[in-house]
Structure formats: structure tokens, C-alpha cells
Design a protein that fits this description.
mainly alpha; 15 helices; 0% strand; globular
């Protein structure tokens, strides 16, 4: 009797032929989409970049304009990402640990860069800091250059990237709660001690994940930077802008060589994200085991 029940339950658990066919179709569809929209374009970038050999690729990368664009891209990321990290920690801590007027408005404003087109964001900065903008005459009188200069590129990059850290930390800190921080305060710890010894170790993986996303977006940002940069070669062109300019000049090998650097940055980002997800999963699994024991 028990064997008959076990056989019937195992038969129910086995997928039917229709389910197997559906599963195969779904997997095949996903693989086809990945091949067409991801793998083939990535392969095309590297194929075109190395189409004339390693020597030409190396010479294309070492062009003065490409190196200047690469340095500016790194400089913008080095400035924008730490500021985004500071804002993300401050905003997420305020939102998840305190109640105050305008809290819902702050949460809404954090999402604005995700809803606004980057081109529109660049135009907003031109309207504020441009020569004929709200602050343009005052900036011109004091010989301060924001638009068509590096500060404008930094401001536009900060705008389009600042939601990433906060958006990773807010739900994580809400789910985590504040019991450990309250216990530390009860035991006599001050605010800085609570942050460095309790809060920061607990949010380190989510913080690192958001930082990587912000860095990746800052490196690859095109729309907002294109509007505020002025496309002054060697001065205000980041690597994405340099790729466009090289391509428009029919210098395809150099354009794809520069694009391969952005592609490599994206691949590194994906690897880091996967590593963090794996480390976070292992850490959470270990915590679950400890709580069960």
C-alpha cells in the first residue's frame, strides 16, 4: 500500500511531456535572445577591434585623444562615485532609521534620475549653469566654467548615478532592522562607533554592490555628458564620446578599440556583481544556519 502511494506521488512529481517541451522551448528562447542581443554584439566589438591585428589595436588605444578620454572618464568616476556613496549612506540611514517630514518626498526624489532621460538632465544643467542660464552671467563674471568643462561633466554624472547606492541600501537596511544599533547605543556607544562597528559591517555587501553599479554607469554615461561637454577633443570628451567621434570620422578600428575598453569594464562589473552576490548568498546562508542552531 505504501509502495503504491509512493509510486503515485513520484509519478505526480515527474513533469509531463508537455511540460518538458515547454521548458525546452523557454530555455532555447532565452539562449537565442542572449546570443542575438548580447553575445553577438560583444563578439562583434572585439572582432572589429582586432580586425587589423594587435599592433593596430595597441596603436589605436595609445592615441593621445583616446588616452585623454580615458583619463577624463577615470577622473569623473573617481569624483562622482565617492560622492554618491556618501549621499547613499546618508539618505538610506535617514530614511530607514528616522521619521521626519518630507521623507516620502526624499524617497521620490531619489528615483528622479531613473525616470528622467539623461539628455534632459544635461539640458537642465545647461539651463542652470550655461552662459544664458540662471547662474550663467554670475559664473561668467567670476571666470567660472561649468558647462563645456569638466565640472559640468562631473555634475551630470553625479545626477544620473546617485540613485544606485541609495536604492541598494534602503531596502537592505529596512529588512535588517535597527536592533543591533539600538543595543550598541544602550551599551554606551556613540553615533560614530555605531556606524563604524555595527552599521557599516552589516551593509558592506549592499554598499559595495551599489558602488559598483554607480561606477559602471559613470564610466558608460553618454547622454547627459554629451549635452554638457561641448565635445572639446582632448579636454571634455569621455571615452563613450570619443567612441562616437571616432566612428563618425570613419575611424572604425580606433572606435571599436576604444569601445572594447568600455566592454571590458562592463564584463569586469558583471564578474564583480556575481562575486558579491555569491559572497552575500554564502554569508546569508551561514547566518541562517547559525539562527537555526
Amino acid at each position: 500500500m505504501s509502495n503504491r502511494g509512493a509510486n503515485s506521488s513520484s509519478a505526480l512529481l515527474q513533469p509531463s511531456m508537455q511540460q518538458r517541451v515547454g521548458r525546452v522551448v523557454l530555455i532555447a528562447t532565452a539562449l537565442v535572445f542572449l546570443a542575438v542581443f548580447l553575445l553577438l554584439p560583444v563578439a562583434a566589438v572585439f572582432t572589429q577591434a582586432f580586425s587589423q591585428g594587435w599592433a593596430m589595436y595597441r596603436d589605436s588605444i595609445h592615441q593621445q585623444d583616446v588616452l585623454s578620454a580615458l583619463r577624463l572618464t577615470g577622473l569623473v568616476a573617481v569624483i562622482a562615485v565617492p560622492l554618491n556613496v556618501q549621499f547613499g549612506i546618508s539618505a538610506s540611514w535617514a530614511i530607514t532609521r528616522f521619521e521626519f517630514h518630507g521623507k516620502s518626498l526624499l524617497i521620490t526624489l531619489i528615483d528622479v534620475p531613473l525616470a528622467v532621460s539623461p539628455v534632459v538632465a544635461g539640458l537642465m544643467y545647461v539651463e542652470v549653469f550655461g552662459l544664458h542660464g540662471w547662474l550663467g552671467p554670475w559664473l561668467s563674471e567670476h571666470n567660472l566654467h561649468i558647462i563645456f568643462a569638466v565640472p559640468g561633466i562631473v555634475l551630470a554624472t553625479i545626477f544620473v548615478t546617485f540613485p544606485f547606492v541609495a536604492r541598494e541600501l534602503i531596502p537592505f537596511m529596512q529588512a535588517q532592522g535597527s536592533d543591533e544599533e539600538i543595543a550598541a547605543v544602550v551599551l554606551g556607544a556613540n553615533g560614530w562607533s555605531v556606524f563604524w562597528r555595527v552599521t557599516l559591517p552589516n551593509i558592506k555587501w549592499a554598499l559595495l554592490y551599489g558602488t559598483i553599479l554607480a561606477a559602471s554607469r559613470s564610466i558608460g554615461e553618454f547622454g547627459a555628458v554629451s549635452v554638457v561637454s561641448g565635445h572639446i577633443r582632448g579636454l571634455t570628451t569621455t571615452l563613450p564620446l570619443e567612441v562616437e567621434m571616432l566612428y563618425n570620422e570613419y575611424n572604425f578600428t580606433a572606435a571599436f578599440a576604444a569601445a572594447s575598453l568600455l566592454t571590458l569594464a562592463a564584463i569586469v562589473t558583471l564578474v564583480l556583481k556575481k562575486s558579491i552576490e555569491s559572497a552575500t548568498g554564502v554569508h546569508q546562508h551561514g547566518q541562517e544556519k547559525e539562527s537555526e542552531s
